[in-house]
Design brief:
By secondary structure, the protein is mainly α. It has two domains: 135 residues; 120 residues, Up-down Bundle (de novo design (two linked rop proteins)), CATH 1.20.1440. The protein has nine helices and no strands. Helix 3 runs antiparallel to helix 4. The two termini are 38 Å apart.
């Protein structure tokens, strides 16, 4: 398992370097998204080990990159939606900003810090292994994954559940299962249900953000009526996706 873990970290580091080069050259619009996906996978791989001494620095560095790039990715999604709906002027305004802002991520302190800690991580883990700190690694990971599932089930069983929190918990469970499929003990088809629920909640979250921005950014005002209808649809679809996920989790209809 330690060998697998180190191989996965090295592979993700290589992917990050590729995303870095694509962002710097502004070669495609998916470079930022791919960088964020790779950082997300890294955090999912390391989350079960976060109580080990020293790994908090890696988590903090990865979180820093996530926090830095989230507003940019949100703007990308908004710009694409605006183009799709025929609001070309506000879409172009945001696209031009992103053309300048995205390449600057490559020279940011946050990304440079992440590369620095990743370069040292394989050696650090080998040292931990020699000192016996990675004994029973599979059990440690399984325990963490089970704990994440319990949090999600408890949150879904709460009639007053918070969509924001559910979205976060679903993402953690789903990505952890992708990182450790052999240890996740999921029912068949569960990843598909998790992905559907995450997507529906993501659509709701996007509309919530867009409506908040429309109250502050004048050029988005013409979109407000459509988004007010859109968030109602997104709420209904997310509720249905959560209902289906609840059936898969509990074997019956969730509250």
């Amino acid at each position: 398992m330690v060998d697998h873990l180190i191989a996965e970290i090295i592979s993700l580091n290589v992917k990050l370097m590729s995303c870095h080069a694509r962002l710097a050259a502004s070669t495609d619009s998916e470079a930022l998204h791919d960088l964020r996906t790779t950082v997300r996978r890294l955090r999912s791989v390391l989350r079960p080990l976060r109580d080990l001494p020293g790994l908090d620095q890696v988590e903090e560095a990865a979180k820093g990159v996530g926090d830095l790039t989230t507003p940019l990715r949100d703007m990308q999604v908004l710009a694409a939606f605006l183009y799709e709906q025929g609001f070309d002027a506000p879409a172009l305004k945001r696209s031009r900003y992103l053309e300048q802002a995205c390449p600057r991520v490559t020279t940011s302190p946050e990304l440079n810090r992440l590369f620095g800690v990743l370069d040292q991580l394989p050696t650090f883990l080998r040292t931990q292994q020699r000192h016996g700190l990675l004994n029973q690694l599979c059990k440690r990971i399984e325990k963490r994954l089970d704990k994440q599932w319990k949090k999600l089930r408890d949150a879904m069983a709460d009639p007053e559940h918070d969509r924001h929190r559910l979205r976060l918990l679903i993402k953690r469970v789903r990505y952890a299962a992708e990182a450790y499929p052999e240890l996740s003990h999921q029912r068949k088809g569960m990843q598909r249900r998790l992905k559907e629920a995450q997507g529906a909640l993501g659509d709701w979250h996007d509309h919530l953000q867009w409506l908040a921005q429309a109250g502050q950014q004048v050029d988005l005002a013409p979109c407000t009526a459509g988004w007010e209808l859109g968030i109602l649809r997104a709420e209904a679809e997310s509720d249905q996706a959560l209902l289906e996920l609840g059936k898969a989790c509990f074997g019956k209809t969730a509250h």
